[in-house]
Amino acid sequence: MKALEERILKDGKVYPGNILKVDSFLNHQIDIKLMDEMAEAFYEKYKDAGINKIMTIEASGIAIAYAVGRVFGVPMVFAKKSKSLNIGGDVYSSTITSYTYKKDYKIILSKNFLSEKDNVLIVDDFLATGSAMKGLLEICRMAGAKVSGVGICIEKGFQKGGKEITEMGYDLTSLAVVEEMTDDGKIKFRN
Amino acid sequence: MKALEERILKDGKVYPGNILKVDSFLNHQIDIKLMDEMAEAFYEKYKDAGINKIMTIEASGIAIAYAVGRVFGVPMVFAKKSKSLNIGGDVYSSTITSYTYKKDYKIILSKNFLSEKDNVLIVDDFLATGSAMKGLLEICRMAGAKVSGVGICIEKGFQKGGKEITEMGYDLTSLAVVEEMTDDGKIKFRN
């Protein structure tokens, strides 16, 4: 998506360790107009897929999921990061690994809000190693929900997440795929 | 706000310890149409206040803040709960107490996204003891930002937060104020 790539080039900041900071418009301060444009792009792709629910994970996925749910006219639901390893029976849970914080944690979703009746579009702001996304996909499997697509704002194409999720058979749509970042701050997108 | 009160009566669940669960439409699964209606109510109240930024705290404030930012046509920014007590110099930070989890933690906001040029409407899904809200207000004070209003979806009127924030001189707008909840599940609203 052209507008997103241009915005990344204009306002994104590259830091050592392949860190891309886009917190001025995507995941700390939010540019709502850009977010709504991204939601429209996902809608164009999936509008005929019969989607009845948008799913994401807190916290930075919530804004894009809200925007996408709005254009689809369906509810959105977000998985929570659990503070406790003791999980009750009324939730689906999956263990994911945070590479940023070098530890495992659980994500949970109430069984009341996802079932085999649901046809889901999962969205998130970033895809890198894919650990969080695989946790969400596992929760959908547990619930018996259909996953019609995975929609990502920015994919780090040089990390394994995108490839693995595609190989698992899911339909992945990334609005911008960063192919390469150099330590002097240059960003190259996949065509 | 009538539609919100009716929805709380219909789908809210009361649990011992004055817990009100509204996770089917407000803070786990999100009813986007209702959220947009709440945003319109805040807009009606504050549309002439010159607001240029909406502020909230992750995670469950993000959806309503997005909706409100959208109707105002301004960016929104959310404070983050810090995993580290070591906070760098490029953020404002404030310590707040979680009564749910019985511990203190820091909330942070990048200095890039709030300054004395900002005229802020702070919004959140819930107001009870007011600890998180006071943290957000302290960050606005540090930044020199003007706070034109505090907008809350559901206030627990029998807890101290609303009274204290009003006494601090802020203009508080709660769309539903729960005056009383009984252990048999009855909910009474303030007129």
User: How many strand units of chain A?
Assistant: 11
Q: Major beta sheet of chain A, specifics?
A: 8 strands, mixed
Q: Roughly what percent helix of chain A?
A: 25-40%
Oligomer: homodimer
Proportion in β-strands of chain A: 35-45%
How is this structure best summarized?
The structure is a homodimer of 191-residue chains. Helices cover 29% and strands 36% of the residues of chain A.
Task: List the topology elements.
Two copies of one chain form a homodimer.
Chain A (H helix, E strand, L loop, with lengths): L1 H10 L1 E3 L3 E3 L7 E2 L1 H15 L6 E5 L4 H11 L3 E6 L9 E8 L4 E8 L8 E9 L3 H13 L2 E11 L4 H7 L4 E10 L5 E3 L2
Parallel strand pairs in A: 4-5, 4-8, 8-9, 9-10
Antiparallel strand pairs in A: 1-2, 5-7, 6-7, 10-11
Would you kindly provide a written description of the structure presented here, covering whatever features stand out?
The structure is a homodimer of 191-residue chains. With 191 residues, chain A is α/β, with parallel strands linked by helices. Helix content of chain A is 29%, strand content 36%. Chain A is globular, with a radius of gyration of 16 Å. In chain A, helix 2 packs across helix 3. In chain A, strand 9, helix 5 (161-167) and strand 10 (172-181) form a beta-alpha-beta unit. Chains A and B meet through strand 3, helix 2, helix 3 and strand 5 of A and strand 3, helix 2, helix 3 and strand 5 of B.
